[in-house]
Amino acid sequence: MKxxxxxxxxxxxxxxxxxxxxxxxRGYSVALIDKEQFPRxxxxxxxxxxxxxxxxxxxxxxxxxxxxxxxxxxxxxxxxDSGAAAEAALPSTDGAPVYGLGLxxxxxxxILLQKAQEEGVTALLGYRIxxxxxxxxxxxxxxxxxxxxxxxxxxxxxxxxxRNSWVAHHLGMxxxxxxxxxxxxxxxxxKYAPGLRGRVEIHLFPGGYAGVLGLGDGxxxxxxxxxxxxxxxxxxxxxxxxxxxxRNPHLKAILDESEPVGPGxxxxxxxxxxxxxxxxxxxxxxxxARVNEPVSGEGIFFALRSxxxxxxxxxxxxxRGDFSARELFHYERSCRAEFRRRRGLNGAIRFLMxxxxxxxxxxHLSGKKKRLLESLVHAICRPEAAx
Length: 387
Hints:
Blueprint: E1 4-10, H1 14-25, E2 30-34, E3 47-48, H2 53-59, H3 62-66, E4 71-73, E5 75-79, E6 85-89, E7 92-93, E8 96-97, E9 100-102, H4 105-118, E10 122-125, E11 128-135, E12 138-144, E13 150-159, H5 166-170, E14 183-191, E15 199-205, E16 208-214, E17 219-227, H6 228-231, H7 237-244, H8 249-256, E18 259-267, E19 278-279, E20 282-284, H9 299-320, H10 325-353, H11 356-366, H12 370-381
Parallel strand pairs: 1-2, 1-13, 2-10, 5-15, 13-20
Antiparallel strand pairs: 3-9, 4-9, 5-6, 7-8, 11-12, 12-13, 14-17, 14-18, 15-16, 16-17, 19-20
Helix pairs in contact: 1-4, 1-9, 9-10, 11-12
């Protein structure tokens, strides 16, 4: 196997795989390394927001996605524990309906990884990074299983290893902001025969909210975000299912007709602000750079688009022969400009989700005047042309 590459990407999730595909298509040699074997389960809301279609088509994976179990999503519904509810259709473009997809990350990530391998990317799965050494001409990376260590070299290093990024922490690019987060995420798959009729739903309950989505195989994804300061340090998903979630009557109706499929999962933090995402010869992408709370269902979009922006920046760095932090800062600046509106909207919604006294009147009013909710849904879900 080769021991030298143009780029080494740590993390083979959506951001890492998309960056690998984009760089390989530009003619660069790429190694993609991940500590997990694929396919693997991943805590996620499992919602493919319609905003993703242009970039997914550019990556060339849409046909493979539709070959898996999935549910077409054409509407959004939100409810409060007061009983108020509102629903809006997803937007249309030039008269054609826009839809999202309920699809397990188990399938989604594997499809992107396979596409990267088809493009000539070397995938090293089940290996951990053991050491990183900065060199005058790039990086020397030690990796292995157990006690064994092998090395390879690369000109550029891309950290795509998630919210608790080993690369970010090892290189001193992570702050204490993530460790001080307030919200915990939980996920559980449920067998639910009635189905959700093509809707993605958010249900508010005291201390947090739940996202519910059909997956096309007779199951639904139940994903929760809770404020641990309100619910206590050691609240688990079992206690939430028994005492907190049923306080929303709409959510209780779903839980009463459901049964768990497999174990629950948890993650922390649900959100943290931007890290410094570039250094000399290194770029952080996806959740390694910033975690956006999944209230707007755009986590995958941010991952895929940050990967595309990073690939373009790295290509420019190769063309100029300059891998300094100053040169790579074009990536960070481009992400800020492209994501400013969406992240601002995400932050506003996140603020309201934990303040039901403010959000419940909006839900109640939206139940009568659909344009209120429709304008919000359209802003979040309308596809944008891939750059």
